[in-house]
Every structure is written in structure tokens, then in C-alpha cells.
Amino acid sequence: IFESYFRPRHYCVVESPVVRNEAGEVVFDKNGQAKLIHADLDIRLAQPDQAPFPLYPGEVLRQPVTPLKVVPANSALRLKAVLDFDDETAKEQRKAGDEWLFEGPATYIPRKEVSVEEQIRATVIG
């Protein structure tokens, strides 16, 4: 992925990402091949201080570089958990199948455990 395509406030989704150690370095096997977490997803966000990163053999770019979703005022995203996870922003544990709203105005940062079902606009009555 070239730096010119991976701008701030963008992300991409990598399938079967490499294994990383506690220091964030790629783990290699005895033959020098990068170890993979098969059938897993990794959402990689553009960081201002981050250099372009390679896709290692076996990694697949599942979703190309995409701008982060900006949710306008009086709108929300209906989200659904596809895996169990601890939601640090809401300070609660989400179970697979749970649904909730992410209300705007805000920028939604995707997670591998969550699918965006739809965007909802508020109806103003009166």
C-alpha cells in the first residue's frame, strides 16, 4: 500500500493478518515465513507518524483503503455485534447479535467485531 493512497482518516481491512509480538514486530517461523492468523481480520488505520506497510505473503486486502465514516448530526449508524467483545467506549460487554446506535455528529472507527447495518436519519416532527 503506497503512502499517497493511505491518507489520514482512512482505513483498510486485511484478512489473515500476520502475528505480532508484544513489541508489535512481525513473528516469523523457522523458515522465515511470516506467521498468519488465518480467517481473522485486522483493521488498519492511517496514523500520522506511520510509514506505509507491506502486505505479507498470505495477507489479503479484503477492503481497499476507505475514508472513515462521518455520521452527521441527527443521524446514527445501527451497529450489530458479530463477535463478543468489550466495548471500551460504552464501558460494557457486547455479545454477538447485540444491536445499538452510534449517534452523530461523530466519526465512526470500525471494528472487526461489528457490522454496520444501516444509517438512520432522525425525523423531526413539529
TrEMBL record:
<feature type="repeat" description="MVP">
    <location>
        <begin position="73"/>
        <end position="126"/>
    </location>
</feature>
<dbReference type="InterPro" id="IPR041134">
    <property type="entry name" value="Vault_2"/>
</dbReference>
<dbReference type="GO" id="GO:0005634">
    <property type="term" value="C:nucleus"/>
</dbReference>
<protein>
    <recommendedName>
        <fullName>Major vault protein</fullName>
    </recommendedName>
</protein>
<dbReference type="InterPro" id="IPR039059">
    <property type="entry name" value="MVP"/>
</dbReference>
<feature type="domain" description="Major vault protein repeat">
    <location>
        <begin position="69"/>
        <end position="111"/>
    </location>
</feature>
<dbReference type="GO" id="GO:0005737">
    <property type="term" value="C:cytoplasm"/>
</dbReference>
<dbReference type="InterPro" id="IPR041139">
    <property type="entry name" value="MVP_rep_dom"/>
</dbReference>
<dbReference type="GO" id="GO:1990904">
    <property type="term" value="C:ribonucleoprotein complex"/>
</dbReference>
<dbReference type="InterPro" id="IPR043023">
    <property type="entry name" value="MVP_rep_sf"/>
</dbReference>
<feature type="domain" description="Major vault protein repeat">
    <location>
        <begin position="8"/>
        <end position="63"/>
    </location>
</feature>
<dbReference type="Pfam" id="PF01505">
    <property type="entry name" value="Vault"/>
</dbReference>
<keyword id="KW-0963">Cytoplasm</keyword>
<dbReference type="InterPro" id="IPR043179">
    <property type="entry name" value="Vault_2_sf"/>
</dbReference>
<feature type="repeat" description="MVP">
    <location>
        <begin position="9"/>
        <end position="72"/>
    </location>
</feature>
<dbReference type="Pfam" id="PF17794">
    <property type="entry name" value="Vault_2"/>
</dbReference>
<keyword id="KW-0687">Ribonucleoprotein</keyword>
<dbReference type="InterPro" id="IPR002499">
    <property type="entry name" value="Vault_N"/>
</dbReference>
